[in-house]
Design a protein that fits this description.
alpha/beta, Rossmann fold, Dimethylsulfoxide Reductase, domain 2, Barwin-like endoglucanases, 7-stranded mixed β-sheet, 23 helices, 18% strand, globular, binds iron/sulfur cluster
Length: 685
């Protein structure tokens, strides 16, 4: 019996794995603050991949001439990869090699991967798929609060709020146990507000539901701030003592009267006024954003607009109130703290900060000047492949960009242009299928490591079963390659040792893990960062007295509304938005292979009015075409989506062949959540 956490989303539900015989594992839910003994069906079925015949158990190399795969021993595979990396570095310089990580990797792997890129490869080119997940919220929170921790309070605090506003979150499907906290809030008389272009299962349980045009959340927030200010409900005392910069934001919001907001968002001015009244008549309001608000070319500005609203109401730092981001991937929080990002070193330190470089270099035992500088963000990194100075090799850990990247056809073609593509994965994912070398690695129940959930709570996933013969951990792969490359520093394969080193590297940084140990996590069932010393209790709630900015105050940041990067026109006259379904997780590489989870494939959700205009019928194919590609899939005709919008889930190949690669100027987040499309009914043949 092993206490651990779910392999999937950022809730990191507590579960117990029970051994039945030598290798069969059963899941039992366990009491843990975020899930309280509940799991969603993904969690219940999470051991299903262990018995899959698709599990990889030996290194493979693919012939470029024939496309045939051949089996290699681990030594052969590691020697081959290391020698090719060394040769590319020798011939083209260190930046010829690149690393692509994932927001599902443990903290230890994320840390070791960042160190491997900078020390063993000497490359600046490392980034990860979390750039596509919540980077706009992270950038906005850093600008406004001086720190990015998804939720600066425990999730259960929302039960004590009077109002929770969910902007672009469908948590009833993406993290169902979290909905229990909202149910309790409502049972106590609190209200839930949902802002979403689709009336999702989350919206079905909302007290207030606003259904704006995709990509217009920013205008909605400005309109609410306008009404809050006009009604005299700005918390002037809070603004004066705990913030800076309100005058410029107030002046911007003055131009966002409700009728203007209605024209842009499609939300009736009367509904906007009603919501403003709800907000101004409540003291304990929690504003939560998720991918719907964040995955835009103006995602950072959109999140800032909602933070500005929260600050004007005096919420952040108050008990049972504030702003937070509902992170998506399992280690969406920790994955961005330990050096996987192109511009960051462990401890959430900026890579161009000389003090940060000196500190981390001292832990790694290398000269600070040997560390490369800032690299390219995830999509820019992939786009640079095939350009004269672009990467010639890519090592992929815990990611499947052929399915999850925006403009995915172009990304797949970039990957084919590499001299060397190496993928570490459990199964032959769509990205692994393009690789030159595939290295089979352990999965969560077969290894130990920490994750940091959406609350900033560091939890421990414990090994419950031995991995299949022939499989190695990512830490073993990284260490073996580092040694073959003659890298300086030490390369432990023991997760607990790596975590201790991570603690040293993070000490004094914004995400300080120095006081957290495996023993403490076991004893306390999770520890909140920052936790700078063994005697420190951890920090469940932040910002009560001050913000971690130079003057201790939060910053209002003025924003302007530009709208989606692709406005509708005569050809592409419908908005396309993408998202998730209950039974699948991310690119589906794991969940599509679990027998007990329904795998219905992609579909196109559209409104009956649009279906009538097109002549589309429920269950029959429709084709969605954007400037980047097209997808034909069965129609699902539902009255819950806006008539000007279609929705396609992205867990399968297809949706992201359509999505836009317009990037947010600050976070470099692509605009997954809206682009212009044409919808047609294919001709019968
Ligand atoms: Fe919990 Fe998320 Fe796992 Fe579902 S997928 S059991 S919500 S951690």
């Amino acid at each position: 019996m092993t206490d651990t956490h779910c392999p999937y989303c950022s809730l990191q539900c507590g579960m117990t794995l029970l051994r039945r015989g030598r290798s069969v594992l059963e899941v039992a839910a366990r009491e843990f603050p975020v899930n309280e003994g509940a799991l969603c069906r993904k969690g219940w079925t999470s051991t299903g991949l262990r018995g899959s015949r698709e599990r990889l158990t030996t290194p493979l190399v693919r012939s470029r001439e024939t496309g045939e795969w051949s089996v290699l021993t681990w030594d052969e595979a590691l020697d081959l990869v290391a020698s090719r990396l060394a040769a590319l570095r020798e011939e083209h310089g260190a930046d010829a090699n690149a690393v692509f990580g994932g927001g599902g990797l443990t903290n230890e792997k994320a840390y070791q991967l960042g160190k491997f890129a900078r020390v063993a490869l000497g490359t600046s080119r490392i980034d990860y798929n979390g750039r596509w997940c919540m980077s706009s919220a992270a950038t906005a929170a850093n600008q406004a609060f001086g720190l990015d921790r998804g939720l600066p309070f425990p999730l259960a605090d929302v039960e004590q709020a009077e109002v929770v506003v969910l902007v672009g979150s469908n948590l009833a499907e993406t993290m169902p146990p979290a909905a229990r906290h909202l149910d309790r809030l409502r049972a106590r008389g609190g209200r839930v507000v949902v802002v979403d272009p689709r009336r999702t299962p989350t919206a079905d349980h909302a007290d207030v539901f606003l259904q704006p045009v995709p990509g217009t959340d920013l205008a909605l927030a400005l309109g609410l701030l306008h009404l809050v200010d006009a009604s005299g409900a700005v918390d002037e005392s809070y603004v004066a003592t705990r913030t800076t910069g309100f005058d410029a934001v107030r002046s911007t919001a003055a131009a966002w009267w409700p009728e203007r907001v209605e024209r842009i968002t499609g939300v009736a001015a009367a509904d906007l006024r009603s919501l403003a009244t709800v907000l101004t008549s409540s003291k304990r309001v929690v504003v939560l954003t998720a991918r719907g608000a964040e995955q835009h070319a103006d995602g950072t500005a959109t999140v800032l607009a909602w933070i500005d609203l929260a600050l004007a109401l005096g919420l952040p730092g108050r008990p049972y109130a504030g702003y937070g981001c509902l992170t998506g991937q399992g280690n969406g929080q920790g994955g961005r703290e330990h050096g996987q990002k192109a511009d960051q070193l462990p401890g959430y330190r900026m890579i161009d900060d000389p003090d940060a470089r000196a500190h981390v270099a001292s832990v790694w035992g290398v000269p600070p000047e040997s560390l490369p500088g800032k690299g390219l963000s995830a999509y820019e990194l992939l786009s640079a492949i095939g350009t004269p100075l672009g990467p010639r090799s890519l090592l992929v850990f815990g990611s499947n960009p052929v399915v999850s990247a925006p403009n995915a056809t172009a990304v797949a073609s970039r990957l084919r242009a590499l001299d060397l593509l190496v993928v570490c994965d459990l199964v032959m994912s769509e990205t692994a299928a393009l690789a030159d070398v595939v290295l089979p690695v352990t999965q969560w129940a077969e290894e130990t490591g920490t994750m940091t959930n959406l609350e900033g709570r560091v939890v421990l996933r414990q090994q419950a079963v031995t991995p299949p013969a022939g499989v190695r951990s990512d830490l073993e792969v990284i260490a073996a390659l580092a040694v073959r490359l003659g890298a300086a520093s030490t390369w432990s394969t023991d997760p607990e040792e790596v975590f201790a080193e991570l603690g040293l590297a993070s000490a004094g940084g914004r995400a300080d893990y120095a006081g957290i140990t495996y023993a403490r996590i076991r004893e306390e069932d999770g520890v909140f960062w920052p936790c700078p010393s063994p005697s420190h209790p951890g920090t469940p709630r932040m910002f009560a007295l001050s913000f971690p900015t130079t003057d201790g105050r939060a910053r209002f940041v003025p924003v302007s509304y530009d709208g989606p990067a692709e406005p509708l026109d005569g050809t592409f006259d419908v908005h396309l938005t993408t998202g998730r379904v209950l039974a699948q997780y991310q690119s589906g590489a794991q969940t599509r292979r679990i027998r007990d989870l329904p795998d219905d494939g992609p579909f196109v959700e559209l409104h009956p009015l649009l279906a009538v205009r097109l002549g589309a019928r429920d269950g029959e194919p429709v084709t969605v075409t954007t400037r980047r590609g097209s997808l034909t899939a069965p129609a699902r005709v539902v009255g819950t989506i806006r008539p000007d919008t279609v929705f396609v889930p992205f867990h399968w190949v297809g949706a992201n062949r359509l999505t836009s690669d317009a990037l947010d100027p600050s976070s470099r987040m692509p605009e997954f959540k809206v682009c212009a499309c044409a919808v047609t009914v294919p001709a019968l043949v």
